[in-house]
Design a protein that fits this description.
Elements: H1 9-18, E1 24-28, H2 35-45, E2 51-55, H3 61-70, E3 76-80, H4 87-91, H5 99-104, H6 107-119, H7 133-136, E4 151-153, H8 163-173, E5 179-181, H9 190-200, E6 206-208, H10 217-234, E7 240-242, H11 251-261, E8 267-269, H12 279-282, E9 288-291, E10 300-304, E11 313-315, H13 324-333, E12 339-341, E13 359-361, H14 364-367
Parallel strand pairs: 1-2, 2-3, 3-4, 4-5, 5-6, 6-7, 7-8, 8-11, 11-12, 12-13
Antiparallel strand pairs: 9-10
Helix pairs in contact: 1-2, 2-3, 8-9, 9-10, 10-11
C-alpha cells in the first residue's frame, strides 16, 4: 500500500492476525506506525514473512531487532527514508562485536522497552495491541543471520551509514545476495568496493550505488577489471546497474563496465554522470573502445567489442555529452533498447535515431 498515512499500529496488527498467509508486506508513508508497533507485528507474522518493504515510517532499532529475531525466513528487505533507521540498526544485520551492540541486540532489552512504554501509559490507539513482556517470555531466540535473504535494499537513509558497518554487513550477507541497493551511502569508499564488495558479492546481479560519491573512478576501474574474469567464470555479469549521480565516473569506467557486463546488462542508469564522462565513454555501450595514444591529443579507436547487446533501458539524463550521433551508434548496436531517458540533454534533437518499439523520454523537442 502507498500513501497510507492514516494507518496506525492497530491496523497493522489486524493485518498480521487476520491474514494468516500474509508473506509479503509493502507500506509507503505509514508514518503513524511506531517502532514498537512494528516490533509486535514482526512477532505476530514470524518466519512466514518472506518480503518486507517500508518507506517513510517509524522503523527503528526495536523493529529491526524484532525483524531479525522473528522473521528468519525473510528473503527480501527494503527500507527507505525511515528517519529512525540508523547505523546501529544496520549493524544488527551483522553479528554483534562490541558490548554496546550486544546490549542493543539483547532480546530482553526489547521486552523491557515494551513493558516500560506500557507502564508509562504511552500506548495510544496508534500503538494499541502491544504485547506485554510476559507474553514474550521464553520465546525470543538469540541473534542469528538472515540466511535466506536474497535482496537487500537500503536506499536513501536519513542518517549516515558508516563505511565500517557497511563492510561488516556485506561480509556477513554478501555471498548470498542477488540484489544490493546502497543508494545514498556516501561514507563508503574504495576499501569497501575493493576489499568487501569485490570479495563477497559474486552472486549480485542487480547493483545500485547511486550517490555513493566516496568511491573514486580508479577504484571502479580496478573493481570491474578484477571482476571481469570472475564474471566470465560464473557465466553472468550485472543485469541492472544504477550509478545515478556518481559524478566522478570516467570513460575508463564505462569501458571496463561494458567489458565486464556488456553481454548481460539490461538496464543502466547514468543520470547526472556528467563531470568527467565524454562521448568516447558512451560509445563503449556500442562496443567502441577509444584510447589516446602517447604523444597524441585526440582519441583513436583501439578495438571493437560486442557492446551492450541485451540493453533494454538506458537513462542518460543530464549527461550533456549525449548527442544524436552518439545515440545513432548506441541504438544501432543495442537492438533490444526500448526506453532512453534524455532529460537535460540539449544536443538530442528530433533527428535522434528512431525505430519501432523505441521511446525517448525527456527530449526537449518533444516538450517545447
Amino acid at each position: 500500500m502507498e500513501y497510507c498515512g492514516r494507518m496506525n499500529g492497530l491496523n497493522l496488527l489486524s493485518l498480521a492476525r487476520g491474514l494468516p498467509k500474509l508473506a509479503h508486506v509493502r507500506l509507503d508513508g505509514a508514518f503513524l506506525i511506531t517502532d514498537v508497533a512494528w516490533a509486535e507485528f514482526f512477532y505476530e507474522v514470524g518466519p512466514r514473512l518472506k518480503g518486507f518493504k517500508a518507506a517513510y515510517t517509524g522503523f527503528g532499532p526495536c523493529a529491526m531487532r524484532a525483524l531479525i529475531t522473528h522473521c528468519t525466513g525473510l528473503e527480501e528487505l527494503r527500507l527507505s527514508e525511515c528517519a529512525d533507521f540508523d547505523d546501529d540498526c544496520l549493524a544488527m544485520l551483522a553479528a554483534p562485536i562490541t558490548e554496546r551492540e550486544e546490549m542493543l541486540q539483547e532480546p530482553e532489552r526489547v521486552l523491557r522497552l515494551l513493558a516500560e512504554r506500557g507502564k508509562k501509559g504511552k500506548m495510544t490507539n496508534t500503538n494499541a495491541g502491544i504485547l506485554s513482556a510476559d507474553a514474550y517470555s521464553g520465546k525470543v531466540p538469540e541473534w542469528q543471520p538472515l540466511l535466506k535473504l536474497r535482496k537487500l535494499e537500503l536506499p536513501h537513509p536519513h542518517k549516515p551509514m558508516t563505511n565500517i558497518t557497511a563492510k561488516r554487513v556485506l561480509r556477513m550477507l554478501g555471498s548470498q545476495l542477488q540484489v544490493l541497493n546502497l543508494a545514498g551511502f556516501r561514507d563508503i569508499g574504495d576499501d569497501f568496493l575493493l576489499g568487501v564488495l569485490a570479495e563477497h558479492s559474486h552472486n549480485v546481479t542487480e547493483l545500485t550505488l547511486s550517490e555513493c560519491t566516496g568511491i573514486s573512478p580508479e577504484a571502479f576501474v580496478e573493481f570491474l577489471a578484477a571482476g571481469r574474469k570472475k564474471a566470465k567464470m560464473i557465466g553472468h555479469g550485472y543485469t541492472h546497474l544504477d550509478l545515478r549521480r556518481c559524478y566522478m565516473l570516467t570513460d575508463a569506467v564505462m569501458q571496463e563496465l561494458v567489458q565486464h557486463s556488456g553481454a548481460t546488462l539490461m538496464t543502466l542508469n547514468l543520470n547526472s554522470v556528467d563531470d568527467n564522462l565524454t562521448c568516447d565513454g558512451l560509445l563503449a555501450l556500442a562496443g567502441q573502445i577509444y584510447c589516446v595514444p602517447e604523444g597524441q591529443e585526440r582519441p583513436v579507436l583501439e578495438k571493437s567489442i560486442t557492446g551492450c547487446t541485451s540493453l533494454e533501458e538506458l537513462d542518460l539524463s543530464w549527461v550533456r555529452c549525449t548527442t544524436d550521433a552518439v545515440l545513432e551508434q548506441i541504438v544501432g548496436k543495442c537492438k533490444n533498447l526500448t526506453l532512453i531517458k534524455v532529460y537535460g540533454c540539449q544536443n538530442v534533437t528530433s533527428f535522434a535515431p528512431v525505430r519501432p518499439g523505441l521511446t525517448y523520454v525527456g527530449r526537449e523537442c518533444d516538450l517545447l
